[in-house]
Write a structure and sequence with these properties.
Strand order of the largest sheet: 1-2-8-6
Distance between the termini: 35 Å
Oligomer: single chain
Radius of gyration: 15 Å
Largest sheet: 4 strands, antiparallel
Order of helices and strands: HEEEEEEEE
Low-confidence stretches: 16-21
Number of strands: 8
Shape: elongated
């Protein structure tokens, strides 16, 4: 069981109404945007109200990329949610590798081609 699975199970115990919401009806927090500069694509991460502990998969021309989102605390100025790289295909890098996103704001990952060192 992953941390995200455990967090979701605990949330369903603490907030039984969440158990009735199928995951497919919850709006994703990540969007794939067109690239610019040295990024072939951008991943926009939206910190909205609500608990959202999930791994999202987005499909790019270089393969599937996965980012994990974790809700920290409630939706207030003191609690910032986090997102980080979960999995990338060969030849793809993401910068930064970890985001701390204030409530109500957005963060961005740049997806770049990576040829190695």
């Amino acid at each position: 069981m992953t941390r995200a699975d455990l967090a979701l199970a605990l949330a369903m115990i603490a907030f039984p109404a969440l158990a009735d919401i199928p995951p497919s009806t919850i709006k994703p927090r990540m969007t794939l945007l067109p690239g610019s500069h040295n990024c072939f694509a951008w991943v926009e991460v939206d910190n909205r109200v609500g608990v959202y502990n999930r791994i999202e998969t987005l499909h790019t021309q270089h393969g599937a990329v996965q980012f994990e989102y974790q809700t920290n605390g409630g939706h207030n100025p003191e609690d910032h949610d986090e997102a980080w790289v979960h999995a990338l295909p060969d030849g793809v890098a993401a910068a930064p590798g970890h985001l701390v996103i204030p409530d109500g704001e957005k963060g961005y990952f740049c997806l770049e081609e990576f040829q190695g060192l």
